[in-house]
Specification:
The chain is built from seven helices and six strands; from the N terminus they run βαβααβαβααβαβ. The chain has 176 residues and is α/β, with parallel strands linked by helices. The chain has a single domain, classed as P-loop containing nucleotide triphosphate hydrolases (Rossmann fold). A six-stranded parallel sheet has the order 3-2-4-5-1-6.
Length: 176
């Protein structure tokens, strides 16, 4: 009998939310868990995000659902992002039913709720229908109070100081 899967949230304005999720994925893969990593609002083809390739090499199943975020991709419309996020959530619902992974990471899904591309209730409904044993990790800034109450683990990563504030650009292998 497998353990009950719990809900994790990694949120806040500090660096390390995705890094924490990827670290947990590596730990789970090392224990033979079936891991699915789904990203939202990222464009690995442009920015690298080599951690995604590393997870895939280690055996994780990878999915990407949006063409980025309007902050970095000005061609995206609100309607397009809403559709892409909802389609991603619908796809993951089916994937969970058919495959029942041990760990599902939804990287930056909280941005979808914060910025209005996904209703909070839609994500709460998704959570309530996940397989009982699947551990779920959600990352991104702006976790809502209802999502925080629903979660079992909540880590708030707070920026105290960051090189970006001193006009030091993102560095390959560290920030991306």
């Amino acid at each position: 009998m497998k353990n009950k899967g719990l809900i994790h949230i990694y949120t806040g304005d500090g660096k390390g939310k995705t890094t924490a999720a990827v670290g947990l994925a590596i730990r789970a893969l090392g224990h033979g868990f079936r891991v699915c990593y789904a990203h939202f609002h990222k464009r690995p083809e442009l920015y690298g995000y080599n951690e995604i390739q590393s997870l895939e090499k280690l055996g994780a199943t990878i999915f990407g659902f949006t063409g980025g975020h309007p902050f970095c991709n000005k061609t995206l419309t609100r309607e397009q992002l809403q559709r892409e996020v909802r389609e991603g959530l619908q796809f993951l619902s089916g994937y969970l039913t058919e495959n029942e992974p041990d760990l599902l990471i939804m990287d930056e899904i909280l941005i979808s709720v914060r910025d209005g591309y996904l209703a909070e209730e839609e994500l709460l409904d998704f959570i309530s229908h996940k397989p009982e044993h699947t551990e779920l990790v959600m990352t991104g800034r702006g976790a809502t109070d209802k999502l925080i109450v629903r979660a079992d683990y909540v880590s708030h990563v707070t920026k105290v100081k960051h090189p970006y504030d001193q006009d030091i650009p993102s560095r390959e292998g560290i920030e991306f």
